[in-house]
Amino acid sequence: MRRERLHQLPGPHQWKKHQRNLGMSMRVERSSLDQVKKRFEANKKKMEEKQKEYDFEERMKELREEEEKAKAYKKEKQTQRKRRADDDDLEEDDEMAAVMGFSGFGSTKKTK
């Protein structure tokens, strides 16, 4: 039985031909000192902009708000689960009482 491969990457000995067929040149341009300095300056400016955008207090405030939302959601889910469980228990108790032939699970003691 022959396996058909949809897409196969070229092996190590075929990479050069493959990249040349895709239109890539295999030669790397030599950078001058001025080009390297300009690139460093541009990267440094990018990093400074990112640091300015990052405000610690604002981030902490956002995290607190997210935690509060998560707690409220979790609490709501828990109360819904409890309500469903209570409703199911009451229905089962009523059904059980009807099957057993009496109206409830009360005590036999008489109250004053």
Automatic annotation (TrEMBL):
Residues 44-79 have a biased composition (Basic and acidic residues). Keywords: Metal-binding, Nucleus, Zinc, Zinc-finger. Residues 1-23, 44-112 are annotated as: Disordered. InterPro entries: Snu23. GO terms for molecular function: zinc ion binding. GO terms for cellular component: spliceosomal complex; U4/U6 x U5 tri-snRNP complex. GO terms for biological process: mRNA splicing, via spliceosome. It comes from the Eukaryota. Residues 87-96 have a biased composition (Acidic residues). This is Uncharacterized protein. It comes from Dissostichus mawsoni (Antarctic cod).
